[in-house]
Design goal:
Length: 394
Amino acid sequence: MAKILVCDDDKEIVEAIEIYLSQEGHQILKLLDNEDGTYTLFVKKIKEDFIMSKFKYSVGPWNVHEGADAYGPATRETIDLEEKIKTFAEMGFDAIQFHDDDAVPNMNELSEGEVVSEAKALKAMLDKYNLKAEFVAPRLWMDPHTVDGGFTSNSDEDREFALWRAYRSIDIANALGCDKIVLWLAREGTICFESKSPVESTKKLIDAINKMLAYDKNIKIMIETKPNEPIDRSVCPTLGHAMAISATSDDPSRVGGLLESAHAMLAGLDPANEIGFALAMGKLWGVHLNDQNGMKFDQDKSFGVENLRTAFNQMKVLMENGFGNNGEYIGLDVKVMRTEKQSGSYKHLENSLKIAKMLEEKVNKFDYDFQKKCVAERDYEALEMYVMELLMKG
Ligand code: 3MF
Ligand code: MG
């Protein structure tokens, strides 16, 4: 514990010092008014590299994985779900994102009641580690029933299966105490254009969303957009498309979007702009921050490691527009490099959290007066250089 004497009787200055100290990783234990124009602050340093965040952060169990890719096998051992969850809690995460079958493995073999009781057991595990569930996402891309897609499959039976998984995901979300479903529409689109009508696919998707809205009057649906991979042409590639689907649905107030940085880049868009667009509609309810080197396969790199300025701007737009004020989480969707050893299984998460928080600090330092001056003078070269210096100087 440290004792700091503040020789100023202006309460606002004392409060500013308190905020500064807590941002620097100190916990304020007590503030004593010495009644002689000075204050004594009792503080405790929590962690050497601790950075206070404005946000609550979330992560999915798939973010710690074995390293298999399309061309090679696993390079690390599987880590059990409870072990992952315990580690996420220790790392400071506030919530966990789930696929339906992360939450209830082998759910296809279970009755509806059994699915709910398994989910309740998971809720007890989350409570033990003081974690919330952020959302449940039906995994409609692994099963033999989803080879041709889920909601937009050409097979009636497979579309029925997709809805069954969507309804079970809602049941699981309710058991976990969360009200959000994520639809990452992995195979909703085509690998052969002529195999499906884009008009019919769009209508089928809206129809499935309407059925989910009708199944549960409280549930909210976040569409996680992605332009391609594993399919070639997605039926819902960007947040603009997601907003249009929302507007066409039976309850636009319950259909919003989740933006993943890499997915926007794969569409050739700036994720900060996509974030801004959905925020303007009041419909950005989740993010998957990560990074990507150009328009190739989805890389899920640690946040900010490739495109630092864009990462800064994602943080900036989120912070300027009250993201998080209605309980939204900053979700990470990152993968550690395949080359990493077992002991490095969580390194990308540590790094992404640290980078996100350092960028929060940069946004806090952003000089809005200087920005206004540059805008008034239409001197955007000066503004751009200011941003570069802000990011590159210590
Ligand atoms: C795919 C993704 C997925 C989704 C997840 C939740 C592996 O590109 O980003 O993460 O985010 O399935 O919907
Ligand atoms: Mg994602």
